[in-house]
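Handoff note, outgoing to incoming analyst
You'll be picking up this chain. Sequence as last confirmed:
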Amino acid sequence: MKNILWLIVGVGIGFYAAHRVNQTPQGRAFFADVDAKAREFGDAVVEGYKAREAELRSALDDANDVISDLTHRG
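Most recent structure output, in case you need it:
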């Protein structure tokens, strides 16, 4: 229970500090930079996921074609 209390206190202090830093022009620039990098990272993850999904769907389609050919031969 004590650890949870410290976690809550730490999160609260962190939010307060971030709010205070965001009130300065340098702080806003810092958070804008962090936000831009986080969005860039998220976009890269989504792009990679979609590319991998397309590869797997193509491989699955190829496997289905082979299975279909083999069943029609038999």
